Structure formats: C-alpha cells, structure tokens
C-alpha cells in the first residue's frame, strides 16, 4: 500500500497512530474534513471507500459541491535569488515569469514520481 488510498476519483491519506495502534486518514481535496480509521489495512480501505460514498451521497442530498474549489491563483514564496534567476531565465526565453513557472508545474505534475522520489537536487 502506498501513502495514499484511491477510490472513485478521490484520494485519502494513510497515517498510523502508535498511541492507540490505529490506522487513520482523511479524504484529500474536498470542501469538508472527512476522516476514517481501521485496525487493519483492509479495514482502513473499506472505511475510506464507505466515507467517500457517504460523503458524495450527503453532498447530493444537500445539493452541495463536494470538491474543493481552486481559483488557479496562489502565492509562491521563494528566495530573492531564485526569484531573480527565474525572472532572468524567463526573459532569456522571451516568456513571462508566470508562463515559465506554469511549464515547471506541468513538468512536475507529469513527472511527480521521478522528481519527488529522487531527493533534493544539489
């Protein structure tokens, strides 16, 4: 089992509480906090799937959008040096900084495992 569960287009986290010996998690990317738990991997998967189904049914009954709304706008904080390097890189390529950063984001999304599992570049 990886670090996340997947069911019906939804993802859930997987955590372990050593204090009470229980696996638990929460559904990722929704407007509400939906948590689940189990004492085994199979119980956790079943609880996750039941939580997704129950949440979607409740949202249908309430006429509520279950998925978190994303505007596509957020602030990114970095060092002044990196900001400068990215700005210069974008200008050299005759691009807007926003376009350069979006291309980097696109690359990251398409190559998540390769990029995030190799450690921090030096």
Index terms:
4 helices, 5 strands, five-stranded antiparallel sheet, elongated, 2 domains, alpha+beta, 122 residues
Please describe what this structure looks like.
It contains four helices and five strands; from the N terminus they run βββββαααα. Helix 2 packs across helix 3 (97-110). 44% of the residues lie in helices and 18% in strands. Strands 1, 2, 3, 4 and 5 form a five-stranded antiparallel sheet that branches. It has helices at 41-62, 80-92, 97-110, 112-116; strands spanning 4-7, 10-13, 15-17, 22-28, 35-38. It has two domains: 4-62, no CATH class; 80-116. With 122 residues, the protein is α+β, with helices and mostly antiparallel strands.
Write the layout of secondary structure elements.
Elements lengths: L3 E4 L2 E4 L1 E3 L4 E7 L6 E4 L2 H22 L17 H13 L4 H14 L1 H5 L6
Antiparallel strand pairs: 1-2, 2-4, 3-4, 4-5
Helix-residue proportion: 40-55%
Radius of gyration, in angstroms, nearest whole number: 20 Å
Query: How would you spell out the order of helices and strands?
Result: EEEEEHHHH
- Low-confidence runs (pLDDT<50, min 5 residues)? none
Number of strands: 5
C-alpha end-to-end distance: 30 Å
**Count of helices?**
4
Gross morphology is elongated
Total individual domains: 2
The structural class is alpha+beta
Beta fraction: 15-25%
Mean model confidence by pLDDT: 91
Largest sheet: 5 strands, antiparallel
